[in-house]
């Protein structure tokens, strides 16, 4: 653990500054990038949930798409089939993620290392197959579209319409800010320090009298719930619920984002998601322009990025920054 | 068709699946057993084996058997060479750290898959079978080629078993698997053993693919399902246990053939995946493996 009591000032001003900067961007970004940023903010929340488990506890899960999908379908299915409103659907999505995380955590945490990765991957695979199996409700690959009229919320005299770009951006930013402060509070709390201790040496932490299983289980549940919140928000803001979000690719992507931004840093997930999104987006255009006959898609770029990161840059951007210059970064 | 012959047909189809699965899972199991590396890109080596087999067979003119035999020799060699490069350039530099290698092989998976899409294209293409003899059973005719796949796989598995248990190479490999440091202290070039085992694992997957490609077709996305199935086989059989891998391949292949003939394949996959996860949680040494060291 780097930093200390003396670094309270810069930590809070940095995080408040980032959120304020993102708020400012709402008014200056051109239309296309405005939409992209809203999406990135929601996906960054997904990455932050992943980072809490992977970065701070050192548990590498290959199945976090299941928590995102639990939130996505938990919120989306009742909206489409039962006509539920936003608050009820959002809460259902979060509860689905919480319950799933608790069940998966209780089982998967009996294993460790490679077995943990494979068990989480298998559970996520089972959920993705289940989404396809219940195709008459989920419509499988094709997915469901949530009606525009349903995606709004009446708050007394005001009406929040989530199909409106500015509302959508600000809602995504609000979720991002809440999860960012929650993450910051967690990793700077006693609980967060126990998690890091488990990452560094689980045996020793247990010897010191901490219940490591219970602490890890709490981390899995919090992480899964954050990812589910991202999924539920995605369904409500963008109105699309499809099985691709449950697939293995969406378990790999948060890992990639966190690795790129820097694992075990609070702002790393945002930076990783942002860079990777634009890298994939840009590489598609560049590849089309320069190699028109090639069918090399963004997945190849994802693969290359994974290999290069893990070979040459295992700490990610903020991790390297913290190691070299700014030891106070949380 | 009556129930009995129907079941026989399902069992034969299941045996073909088992034969291919056993070869592929054996490669995965060897790599995990000796190197402690979970090779997520194993399915892509299988896919490359099939795609290169198509390429080689399309270059050779004359009797289809010539093209097939050429593919059976050349395809595993090329795939082995690619695996060797990946091992030297990536895995070795990561010092075989389990988590880093998993991330790197995931990257390799996407890279190989997209390379195949670029160079080979999105079409599914068949390779002609080397012969088209049909074995006439009293109830139905059955492809002689499929029976020969079962036989060749059995021969290859026996050969691998012989190499592992009866030769010096096998002894060196088992010594490395049992205790890397002591093996090194006894003058075994652990580094070279690792490179060899990784290439061998990929070649086994490629051979499995060449055998199957006259039955199913070569396609750039064909690697994912066999990868998951061989994970299942290796886990049920016990990570790193050879005999367990074989028994599990038979079990999974047969039940896959029989179950998917009578039930929804998706439901069968869901149940199989959950069962495997539970096996890992409650019996991490596998159903047939002995407790880990």
Describe this structure in words.
The complex is a heterodimer of chains A (330) and B (293). The relative contact order of chain A is 0.18. Chain A has one domain (13-247). In chain A, α2 (31-57) crosses α12 and α8 packs across α10 (212-238). A two-stranded antiparallel ribbon of chain A has the order 1-4. Chain A has a two-stranded antiparallel ribbon with strand order 2-3. Chain A has helices spanning 8-28, 31-57, 65-82, 86-108, 113-133, 135-138, 165-187, 190-200, 202-207, 212-238, 249-261, 268-290, 298-312, 316-324; strands spanning 144-145, 152-155, 158-161, 240-241. By secondary structure, chain A is mainly α. Chain B has 293 residues and is mostly helical. Chain B folds into 2 domains: 22-222, no CATH class; 223-288. In chain B, 74% of the residues lie in helices and 2% in strands. Chain B has helices spanning 3-35, 42-59, 64-91, 98-120, 144-166, 168-178, 180-185, 190-212, 224-237, 242-262, 265-282, and strands at residues 134-136, 141-143. A two-stranded antiparallel ribbon of chain B has the order 1-2. In chain B, β1 and β2 form a beta hairpin. The mean pLDDT of chain B is 86. The chains are: A mainly alpha (330), B mainly alpha (293). The A-B interface holds A 60, 62, 107-108, 110-111, 113-115, 117-119, 122-123, 125-126, 129-130, 132-133, 252, 255, 259, 294-297, 299-300, 302-307, 309-311, 314 and B 36, 38, 90, 93-94, 98-100, 102-104, 106-115, 117-118, 121-122, 228, 231, 235, 264, 266-267, 269-270, 273-274, 276-278, 280-282, 284.
